[in-house]
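Example 4.3 (complexes with small molecules)
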Amino acid sequence: MEEDKSLPLRTGATQLVFGEGNADTQLYFLGEAPGYYEDREGRPFVGQAGKLLDQLIESIGFRRSDVYISNVVRFRPPANRDPEADEIAAFAPYVNEEINIISPKIIVTLGRFSMNKFLPEARISAVHGKVFKVDWNGKRQIVMPMYHPAAALRSTAILAAIKGDFQLIKKALADDTLEVVEKSQQENAQSSQLSLI
Ligand code: URA
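Answer. The structure with uracil bound is encoded below.
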């Protein structure tokens, strides 16, 4: 990624922010994009949202170093603006390969941009905390969408929701019989096509 000059957003950023953590983990957290502190330190989720994420991870019995934490975009967008669809798409091959290597039991998406990678039509207010099984790279992948921790810092209602949703991750890890919302490949393909239109 350091050498791939085709990647967008590089010129406005200080440095690449790669994913970090335990590559043998069952839990892969996928956020949006580096912010000011992440850009400065070259590590994901080290600002205020990251501190909350650490607490949430500890609330389910793990340390940050037990899990893997990453982002759909790896350079800070100017003035922390939302990443654009073509920017997310440019980083996607790297994100996909990272997921293949780690092969987590559960992908926890943080916020709508990483959620929409797996559930293109979903609305976060309707699906947060639910357990989805999506067709992903030839296998069934469990995905749990969560609110973004930065949103939880702005709203006590979202903070309460994300705290509750994290407890469901613990349950999902322990319980293979958990009720899941199945998304077929066809549904995903259809919704991807719709979002392209
Ligand atoms: N928000 C994100 O989505 N990712 C980070 O790394 C930091 C804040």
